[in-house]
Amino acid sequence: MKILYGMQRPDEGEIRVDGSPVSFHTPADAISAGIGMVHQHFMLADNLTVLENVVLGSEPRRGGLALDFAAARRKIKEISDAYGLGVRPDVPVEELGVGDRQRVEILKVLYRGARILILDEPTAVLVPHEVDELFDNLRGLVREGLTILFISHKLDEVLRVADAITVIRRGTTVATVDPEGVTSRKLAELMVGSELPSPETRESTVTDVVALSVRDLTVRTGDGRTVVENVSFDIRKGEVLGIAGVEGNGQAELVEAIMGMRPCEVAALTLGDADISHWSTLRRRAGGIGYIPEDRHRHGLLLESPLWENRILGHQTRRPNVRGPWIDRAGARADTQRIVEDYDVRTPGIDVDAAALSGGNQQKLIVGREMSGDPVLLIASHPTRGVDIGAQAAIWDHLRTARAAGLAVLLISADLDELIGLSDTLKVILRGRIVADVDPANVTPEQLGSAMTGAGEGV
Amino acid sequence: MSGFLDRMLGRVRLGGWLAVAAPVLAVVFAVLITSVVLLIAGKEPVEAFTTLADYGTQPRSMVMTLNTGVMYYISALAVAVGFRMNLFNIGVDGQYRLAAVVAAAVGGAAVVPGVLNIVLVVVSAVVVGALWAAIAGLLRVYRGVSEVISTIMLNAIATGLGSWLVSEHFGVLTGNDLGTRPIPDDAHMPGIPLIAGTPVLVNGFIVVAVLLGVAYWVVLTRTRFGFELRATGKSESAAVASGVSVKKMIVVTMVMSGAIAGLIGMPELLGASYKYSNNFPTDLGFTGIAIALLGRNSPVGMAIGALLWSFLYNSSNQLQLLDIPKEIVQIMQGVVVLSVIIAYELVHRYRMVAEQRRVGRQLAAPAEPPKAEAAV
């Protein structure tokens, strides 16, 4: 998607538009080839009118300097009427609802002459009737001869709106199917794949000792929305508790609440015997919680610091990194070397910046770091996201080994194979609530997938 | 990835010879631009620079360069502490002036004799600077007020507060000059005869400035506190996830920055004027911002920057003998700052690409002889 829109260069392969090969260096190239992108997050200036937002960056000129708003208004009207978008050009964007804003985004792209539209998860922010409206608009666009690339992980929507469906899993095309001849169930199978990760360890290492106990955890955002509601669970030593769910259903907030990075209401939060609900993040970490964050660049690494400084991050109160108030450079460096060797981090040395490593190697460094210092509990958010297959297998091995040694793991992942393969217990989260308990030994990815979208009967 | 701002404020390190090449190139570039300006104005650039150099190398001017440089350097340190963690303490200016007013009054009252009085003056300056900066820190933490805005406004308030204190409470009239009561002779900071060939002494606070520079370096690079400060500056989200209390860091850093700012006026107060009056140097806080940018917050870089700035400032008057307005020096200072920022940015991009290539190459190479891979 980023490649199609010229934001990234392909390593190999070619793109053809109307049969002729093209190469994009910048989004501007893509736009001039007639490809337009509607982003998931709207890129509109609230305090400007619809008209001003649409022409921003490609303003029609009159006499070289003055802006020709009249011409722009005419053109917007034409496009809006032609495709039935119903956009009013002179309303400030801040007065528009989400559905209207999306139509402005689409119009913006059409205004620049796009014939091919990429829509990235366009329904993520819409309520059902807005989705219906959007689909009507899209059908109108298609009737006028435009091409639409609709990216979504909501199966029913794809089936409703698409004329052809291509399933992509872990960056490869799995299948191209005709929506007429495929069921939602078959599509889910294609999406999640059917093979489970191997080698699978099924002999349980679960003990009776509870490592983390969560009771009635609720998280509200600043504007009062409840994003996690009354979540309760126990994780025992040697147990992997998996949380399955479509992204954005409260997983990230749950993890941040347990880490103490986000305020929450909780009836009881205990690590071992200790009540940690009032502990700071640092104390929770020092108390034995390891944390593999969902977004390693934002939360896991200092990209422009050397590896050995990244080893200290999050462990800046513990040996071998510090001695009292002093950083123990020799100790930290030696231990970084150990992680690099034990976790097979491919790097020329521990003095290179973290940014220079590939995603998989960055992740292995984080896993190695979070496993050091004998954690009691490991919170692993999407531990193998965006890493190559070799690194993925290695990370899974480390998780299994640690589990066998008595580590409790809270696993959050969008990869259903990973969840089913690694978890001893599985819970499904939907709109911030635990809606189902699933036995990973008996569940298929398809059943899990439907439970996650709320479509299934909860298994 | 770091933003342009991160790199501009030196939160991203530069390695090797490139870190030296960038500022040198920037100064050369600034000399060129200034020459062009001089030529346009119909003056002889070579002559102008020769005059500057000749004057600057005389023993007396060297002492003056050192003395002004000491104040510049302390100011740059105060600014740099904030820069390292993304805090823009624009209020160094107000902090040092208010601190100097109060400290001057304390010193002039001579409640304790001799060296004790020096210590008391310095301590009160540090405390006043720290408290004044703490206001901005607390506003940021509890009310979300950008410290840029609050410190700028606090500068204005400090100016008013300072004049009010001097005119209504601490001031005594000596001739036409309204100032605080002079600090008695026994509490003057002794000078150091560092440079031969001139009776002018180097301000004793040069020792304090050097110690501060060393302390700055040790705290930032060798302590847990410094690590957390730098981590917060590089990525606030990563710092939060690692258990750094960003709120606490903001207040502590503001207080530290203000405490150092409190020292800026001390060389002047305890080593030259011995009182706070209308002649007390102003705008040192803003000079500190320029020097911190120039030296990329590195203790050595800022020392060089402070001396360069001070040299230009002190020699500028000489240009008037050649009928060249001394403001030409300000043009040169401005161009140095701008071009150094551009030069650092170019060097940074070059270095990032080079390092990624190097890592790629080193990892690709051993693929053929598998033994070598183990060595990696």
Automatic annotation (TrEMBL), chain A:
CDD domains: ABC_Carb_Monos_I, ABC_Carb_Monos_II. The keyword Transport applies. Pfam families: ABC_tran. One of its GO terms (molecular function) is ATP binding. InterPro entries: ABC_carbohydrate_import_ATPase, ABC_transporter-like_ATP-bd, ABC_transporter-like_CS, P-loop_NTPase. PROSITE patterns: ABC_TRANSPORTER_1 (PS00211), ABC_TRANSPORTER_2 (PS50893). Keywords: ATP-binding, Nucleotide-binding, Repeat, Transport. PANTHER family: CARBOHYDRATE TRANSPORT ATP-BINDING PROTEIN MG119-RELATED, GALACTOFURANOSE TRANSPORTER ATP-BINDING PROTEIN YTFR. This is Sugar ABC transporter ATP-binding protein. It comes from Microbispora amethystogenes. The lineage of its organism: Bacteria, Bacillati, Actinomycetota, Actinomycetes, Streptosporangiales.
UniProtKB/TrEMBL annotation, chain B:
It is a multi-pass membrane protein. It is found in: Cell membrane. Its main location: membrane. InterPro entries: ABC_transp_permease. It comes from the Bacteria. The chain crosses the membrane at residues 12-41, 61-83, 95-112, 148-166, 200-220, 328-347. This is ABC transporter permease.
